[in-house]
């Protein structure tokens, strides 16, 4: 029986079939309740079958967000379903990371989808705001860039998100905070728009409401994360933050955190972790403003200093209330606040701090606070104390940060460097320092200090390295420090020799590598480009042997110490000289014999490729990142690593430089170091040049004797030339006298000709003036007649215009009377129409009574009478409607007539300026009156036809319709005739205007003709005058030509005298040429010597430029092959051997 029932039961439905059914129901349902039920069914499958639900119902669900926005319950279910699709069950067979990407792509492909989610933020419903923010967070997690673009494009997208931070409901506010954190890390434009929506003020208010830094938990951490996103590398937001007073609020938060007003018992221990995280996050935000080398960094440093942030950060660092990470971060922030800012560095040295926490008790007497504290000390002393005093390894991060703060104090400030070094030397010599001294720690022997805290010596070496690096003055001061009293018979040992002795002793004792590497870093920085320091080092010859033995006998696995020892040997050889305690040639031979070139390069290369050196920039230099129980792998200082990578190529090639070629170094304007072989070569060249000069002097004496002989011959030639010159002067004077007589005669002739020409010219001018006066008189007479004729025509026109104006006024009066008559006629017609309407109403009433009487008399034929009655009723209704229609047509015709009259009135007023239209318009008005009267008679006849009988009503209506159409056509024809008449009047007025313009043009042509005649007369007289002047100028030119011929004869005599002088000048030039050849040889000798000096300078500049280019390539992230450097060195050696 059960089997039969099972066979008859319907097929079992799968989850996929159910999802498809619900999806189709959601798409096709028209009622809101049906759609909501389908969505609830889909929600139950979303966690387990996300792919199936999304493939069939995602787009309908998104459509519901836009279409059913007003229904809160439906929107809630839709949002819950979509959120479940983003977070399916882990055990679901359809769970995959690609589903979230697919869903996000579907949302972000259309701008309307994100806009719909943003629109839900405008409602006050809790779940709509909460779920929409959560959904946008899921979309942003999968497709952040596209989500940012959609929100930026949406109207009021960012203001809606930021306003959600002010929601009083914590879940909504927290979700908005998380969404903004996810959207703001990368887009600078998005950060700016969020910041300018008053986000900074909202964030600070939220932090204060959540208990500030001391009592705040995850919400405060999220607020600080959002604040960091908005400020990181965004100069605009940083300026806006600084200008809107947010720095003051930030300082207040830090000050409140430093005021420990609650006792340890009242403060829960679990809140300390959140407190330390919050303070650490705030310090990170401060550091975002203090980027090294940033454009706004100096302004940000000054703003934080002026608002007291430095004092609060120092209080946090030295208060000992927070963990080591917070202390280290506070000290690193202090370093960033003063780094590379000279005014703040100088002011920082005068700051005092209190070491340890402050215990405050409130006094009831005067309301003040009694503070029990230790004696304040200078901040630099406190930092040195924290840095150099032995401490547990757990405090190493704080010690490293304090060391960075001290380095920032004197970074790029030579004055502070010298002061700090002098203070360290003074304290070391006196031995009265209460805190550890940098120099004392370095010069302490390994037996005395022990090996318990290797970082004490390492940090002292790092600080000393920073003080001496690229500071020749500080290096010179440090080299003056000595140990031992020579007067008492003690051996005097310099500071460098003491440090080298401690280094070698530590190597032999097996001290920690950090101590050894610290000493080696310091010596490398001190000896680099400092030949005096190198000579001081070489004063103890056994040091070189000890370093060579250390490099040779260390195993291959040990890379750091041998490699740095090799680098130090390379620096010593590079900057040694022939006069060093160990000569440069001996040192070169010693290195090659005991170490070899290949071993030297291999040691340095392996040191450079060691992970601690190669990856220094990416390795964390803190204890927290290396929690293996032992000492952290912190071996080098950042500045030393930068120096090593910048000069690696030079240090590698140092062994290849010939011993005879010393490095030229300029320190404080003094050049040190030069090749002695080059000096000897130059001396030999000078001796050779001296012999050449002596030979040239002998040649010069021979030339001088020859010159004296030529000078005597020149005196003889000059005397003969003087005699000839006197003769030529006498001839010239005679020619000059005859020439003056000719000139006088020519001047008299020219004067006579000029008088005659002036007389003729005056007569011509008088004749021209006479003709000009006659022409002017004729022109004035013609102009007078033309003006008189024009005035007469103008008077006639004015009379004609006045007559037209009178006629127009008369016509206007007539028109007003006619319009009054028309109005009376219209009123009469309307009254007659009312009468006709009353008659029609009476006739209809009579007809109804007749129908009723007929109905009572014909009851026997009820059916027939009923049909007739219905037909009569229809006919009566039709007739009545036609009558109403006819009445409306009559009213419309009357309104058209009124409009026509108004148009005619406007046209009559416009005819003031059209003088010829008045008579035509009066005729038109009379014809209009007659047409109106005729039309009135026609309407009366039509109304009489309506009253004839009821049987002919239909026919009468049709006649009225046809008659009204004919009247309309006739009226339109009359209006067109009136317009034609107006146009003809306009044409007549235009013709009159054109005639007047033609007359004016004729007067103008007459005027121009008279002016052209006058101009031609003047030009003719001018031409006659110019021809007379040309004749006189020709005669004057002939006279000037005769004068020039006489002058040329004088010039020929002078030329013969100049030839004689030129011969003397040629002799003088040959003498000068001999002298110049002697001087050129001397200059060639000097040029050869200067070229040799220039070559040395050029080689040094090329080497420095090459190192800079390689450093620039490294900064850009490109790799520089060391093999290329070796190949280039080999090529250079081969070239030198070929030469």
From TrEMBL:
It holds the Pfam family Uso1_p115_head. Residues 708-741, 912-946, 1021-1061, 1070-1089, 1107-1139 are annotated as: Disordered. The keyword Coiled coil applies. Residues 722-733, 919-932 have a biased composition (Polar residues). It is found in: Golgi apparatus. Its main location: Golgi. GO terms for cellular component: endoplasmic reticulum; ER to Golgi transport vesicle membrane; Golgi membrane; Golgi stack. InterPro entries: ARM-like (IPR011989), ARM-type_fold (IPR016024), Uso1_p115_C (IPR006955), Vesicle_P115 (IPR024095), Vesicle_Uso1_P115_head (IPR006953). It comes from the Eukaryota. One of its GO terms (biological process) is intracellular protein transport. The keyword Coiled coil applies. Residues 341-655 form the Vesicle tethering protein Uso1/P115-like head domain. Residues 1015-1136 form the Uso1/p115-like vesicle tethering protein C-terminal domain. Residues 708-721, 933-946, 1021-1057, 1070-1085, 1107-1117 have a biased composition (Basic and acidic residues). Keywords: Coiled coil, Golgi apparatus. This is Intracellular protein transport protein. It comes from Aspergillus uvarum CBS 121591. The lineage of its organism: Eukaryota, Fungi, Dikarya, Ascomycota, Pezizomycotina.
């Amino acid at each position: 029986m059960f089997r039969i029932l099972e066979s008859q039961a319907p097929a079992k439905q799968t989850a996929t079939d159910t999802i498809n059914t619900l999806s189709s129901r959601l798409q096709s349902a028209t009622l809101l309740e049906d759609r909501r039920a389908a969505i609830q069914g889909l929600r139950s499958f979303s966690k387990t079958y996300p792919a199936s639900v999304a493939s069939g119902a995602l787009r309908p669900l998104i459509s519901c967000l836009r279409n059913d926005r007003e229904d809160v319950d439906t929107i809630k279910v839709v949002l819950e379903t979509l959120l479940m699709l983003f977070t399916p069950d882990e055990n679901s067979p359809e769970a995959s990371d690609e589903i979230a990407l697919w869903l996000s792509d579907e949302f972000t492909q259309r701008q309307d989808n994100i806009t719909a989610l943003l629109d839900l933020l405008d409602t006050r419903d809790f779940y709509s705001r909460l779920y929409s923010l959560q959904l946008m967070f899921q979309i942003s997690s999968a497709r952040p860039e596209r989500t940012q673009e959609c929100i930026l494009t949406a109207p009021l997208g960012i203001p809606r998100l930021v306003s959600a931070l002010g929601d009083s409901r914590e879940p909504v506010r927290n979700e908005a905070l998380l969404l903004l954190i996810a959207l703001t890390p990368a887009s600078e434009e998005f950060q700016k728009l969020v910041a300018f929506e008053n986000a900074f003020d909202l964030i600070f208010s939220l932090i204060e409401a959540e208990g500030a830094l001391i009592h705040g938990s995850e919400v405060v951490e999220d607020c600080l994360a959002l604040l960091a996103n908005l400020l990181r590398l965004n100069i605009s937001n940083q300026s806006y933050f600084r200008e809107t007073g947010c720095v003051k609020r930030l300082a207040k938060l830090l000050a409140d955190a430093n005021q420990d007003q609650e006792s340890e018992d009242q403060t829960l221990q679990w809140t300390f972790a959140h407190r330390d995280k919050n303070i650490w996050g705030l310090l990170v935000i401060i550091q975002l403003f203090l980027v090294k080398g940033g454009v706004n960094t100096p302004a940000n440093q000054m703003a934080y200093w002026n608002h007291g942030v430095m004092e609060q950060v120092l209080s946090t660092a030295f208060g000992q209330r927070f963990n080591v990470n917070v202390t280290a971060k506070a000290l690193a922030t202090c370093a960033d606040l003063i780094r590379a800012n000279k005014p703040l560095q100088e002011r920082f040295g005068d700051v005092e701090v209190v070491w340890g926490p402050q215990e405050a008790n409130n006094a009831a007497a005067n309301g003040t606070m009694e503070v029990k504290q230790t004696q304040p000390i200078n901040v630099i002393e406190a930092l040195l104390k924290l840095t150099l005093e032995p401490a547990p390894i757990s405090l190493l991060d704080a010690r490293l940060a304090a060391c960075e703060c001290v380095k920032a104090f004197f970074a790029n400030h030579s004055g502070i460097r010298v002061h700090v070094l002098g203070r360290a030397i003074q304290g070391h010599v006196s031995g009265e320092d209460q805190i550890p001294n940098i120099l004392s720690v370095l010069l302490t022997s390994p037996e005395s200090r022990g090996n318990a805290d290797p970082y004490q010596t390492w940090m002292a070496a790092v600080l000393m390295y920073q003080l001496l690096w690229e500071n020749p003055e500080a290096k010179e001061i440090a080299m003056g420090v000595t140990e031992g009293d020579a007067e008492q018979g003690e051996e005097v040992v310099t500071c460098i020799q003491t440090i080298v002795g401690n280094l070698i002793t530590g190597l032999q004792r097996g001290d920690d590598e950090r101590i050894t590497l610290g000493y080696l870093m310091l010596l490398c920085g001190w000896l680099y480009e400092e030949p005096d320091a190198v000579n001081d080092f070489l004063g103890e010859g056994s040091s070189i042997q000890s370093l060579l033995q250390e490099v040779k006998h260390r195993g291959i696995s040990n890379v750091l110490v041998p490699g740095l020892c090799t680098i130090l040997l390379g620096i010593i050889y590079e900057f040694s000289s022939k006069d060093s305690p160990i000569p440069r040639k001996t040192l070169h031979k010693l290195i090659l014999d005991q170490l070899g070139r290949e071993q030297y390069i291999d040691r340095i290369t392996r040191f450079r490729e060691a992970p601690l050196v190669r990856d220094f920039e990416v390795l964390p230099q803190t204890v927290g990142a290396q929690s293996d129980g032992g000492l952290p792998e912190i071996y080098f200082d950042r500045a030393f690593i930068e120096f090593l990578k910048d000069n690696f190529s030079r240090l590698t090639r140092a062994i290849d430089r010939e011993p005879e070629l010393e490095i030229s170094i300029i320190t404080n304007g003094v050049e040190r170091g030069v090749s002695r072989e080059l000096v000897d070569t130059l001396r030999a060249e000078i001796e050779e040049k001296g012999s050449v000069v002596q030979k040239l002097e002998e040649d010069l004496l021979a030339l001088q004797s020859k010159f004296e002989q030529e000078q005597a011959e020149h005196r003889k030639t000059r005397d003969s030339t003087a005699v000839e010159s006197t003769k030529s002067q006498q001839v010239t004077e005679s020619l000059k006298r005859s020439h003056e007589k000719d000139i006088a005669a020519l001047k008299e002739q020219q004067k006579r000709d000029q008088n005659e020409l002036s007389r003729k010219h005056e007569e011509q001018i008088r004749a021209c003036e006479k003709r000009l006066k006659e022409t002017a008189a004729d022109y004035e007479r013609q102009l007078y007649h033309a003006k008189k004729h024009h005035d007469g025509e103008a008077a006639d026109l004015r009379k004609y215009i006045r007559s037209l104006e009178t006629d127009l006024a008369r016509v206007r009066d007539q028109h007003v009377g006619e319009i009054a008559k028309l109005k009376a006629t219209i009123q009469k017609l309307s009254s007659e129409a009312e009468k006709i309407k009353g008659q029609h109403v009476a006739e209809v009433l009579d007809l109804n009574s007749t129908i009723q009487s007929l109905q009572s008399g014909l009851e026997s034929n009820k059916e027939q009478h009923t049909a007739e009655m219905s037909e009569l009723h229809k006919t009566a209704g039709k007739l009545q409607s036609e009558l109403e229609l006819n009445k409306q047509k009559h009213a419309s015709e009357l309104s058209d007539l009124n409009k026509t009259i108004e148009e005619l009135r406007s046209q009559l007023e416009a005819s003031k300026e059209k003088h010829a239209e008045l008579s035509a318009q009066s005729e038109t008005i009379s014809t209009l009156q007659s047409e109106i009267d005729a039309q009135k008679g026609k309407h009366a006849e039509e109304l009489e036809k309506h009253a004839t009988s009821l049987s002919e009503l239909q026919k009468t209506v049709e006649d009225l319709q046809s008659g009204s159409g004919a009247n309309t056509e006739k009226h339109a024809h009359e209006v067109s005739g009136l317009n034609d008449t107006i146009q003809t009047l306009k044409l007549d007025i235009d013709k009159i205007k054109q005639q007047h313009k033609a007359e004016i043009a004729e007067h103008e042509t007459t005027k121009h003709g008279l002016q052209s005649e006058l101009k031609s007369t003047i030009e003719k007289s001018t031409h006659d005058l110019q021809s007379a002047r040309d004749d006189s100028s020709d005669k004057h030119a002939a006279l000037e030509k005769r004068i020039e011929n006489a002058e040329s004869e004088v010039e020929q005599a002078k030329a013969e005298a100049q030839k004689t002088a030129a011969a003397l000048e040629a002799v003088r030039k040959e003498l000068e040429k001999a002298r110049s050849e002697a001087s050129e040889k001397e200059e060639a000798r000097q040029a050869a010597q200067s070229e040799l000096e220039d070559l040395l300078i050029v080689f040094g500049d090329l080497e420095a430029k090459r190192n800079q280019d390689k450093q620039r390539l490294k900064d850009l992230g490109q790799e520089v092959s060391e093999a290329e450097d070796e190949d280039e060195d080999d090529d250079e050696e081969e070239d030198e051997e070929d030469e």
